[in-house]
Amino acid sequence: MQKLITLLIVALSTSLSFGQKIKVLNFGTFHMAGTSDARKVEFDQKNKKSKADTYEIAKMLAAFKPTVICVEVVPGENEGINLDYSKFVTDPNHKANYSGEIELIAYQVGKLSGVQKIYGIDEQKTAPYNYSIWNELKHQTDSLTSKKYMEIIFEEFDGIDTLSTLDKLKYMNTPDYWAKSININADILTHNATTGNFEGADEAAKFYRRNLRIYSNLNQIPLNKNDRVFIIMGNTHTAFLNEFIKRSPKYELVEVWDYLQ
To answer: Confidence class of residue 258 from pLDDT cuts 50, 70 and 90?
Structure first.
């Protein structure tokens, strides 16, 4: 019986072989041009030191040698962002229309690596998401679990502002930080409900839906086995994408820390 099971496992793994997987460097960041997110990281994108720091980080990431770059804009903006990127590459005096981490890191990585095209993979049609339901919902069956968890994590995350830009991004690209990011934006909200209802879970589901759609946008990009994909998005999207990509038969996650040295 054991021999039969072994043979079946071998046969199944052989039949599901997809050949060479496409390498993906999935990089999480804070939003460098400001954000409406609940938690913000202090950063002045116009500061000379900030620009110098992000350029050094871009050089590190460019060592991955991507052929495709994906950013946090919707696919409907692909034509506009590629026109902007092309001007950025060819005209040193061009003032980029897409600022923050797109200009400071994505564009620089692309320029250093010779990337021809940038793709937007964000999704914005999902209904508005209530980040604060854990603190706003009345008559919850359990209001303490989320409240205590959020207090601890927010205090920890507030310490990020004391770090250098590189150390901020190193810290934000760790499994522990990714897990906490998914928790505070989604999973912990399942504790927030009134009797017999699912208010917090429904809010979390919206965020899962958005990230699944982001992943679907990635999957709709025409790629071949020789492509190398660099994704740069807000850290929580990175956390979700890591979970999806690591189970994918198509992609192979590359370790971010191999490049942040």
So the answer is: very high
